[in-house]
Design goal:
Elements lengths: L2 E8 L6 E9 L3 E11 L2 E5 L2 E3 L5 E3 L6 H28 L5
Antiparallel strand pairs: 1-2, 2-3, 3-4, 5-6
Protein name: Putative septation protein SpoVG
Family: Belongs to the SpoVG family.
Pfam family, one: SpoVG
Length: 98
């Protein structure tokens, strides 16, 4: 399985959720609404979920094992870091003029 595309949409408002991400797997399958969350120990991903009748949230799609989750999380967080750097560079590009 290869992650062949990652699309990061940063969240503008303040809060723990930093971005919403879509990934494409093997150029054939897309998973939308993966969230990048800032937790106490740093950034992590939350897979798309739905609130169940008991009030708990249940993942709609998720990796079967922890190594796959870690691999997906690392790819997403790397792309998120690039998106943050690109945004900072574009914001700073016009501010040097006095």
């Amino acid at each position: 399985m290869q992650i062949t595309d990652v699309r990061v949409r940063k969240v503008a408002k303040e809060g723990k959720m930093k971005a919403v991400v879509s990934i494409t797997i093997d150029d054939e399958f897309v998973v939308h609404d993966i969230k990048v969350i800032e937790g106490e120990k740093g950034l992590f991903i939350a897979m798309p979920s739905r609130k169940a009748s008991d009030g708990e949230y249940r993942d709609i799609a998720h990796p079967i094992n922890s190594s796959t989750r870690e691999r997906i999380q690392q790819i997403i967080l790397d792309k998120y870091d690039v998106a943050v750097l690109e945004e900072e560079e574009s914001e700073g590009a016009g501010s040097d003029e006095a």
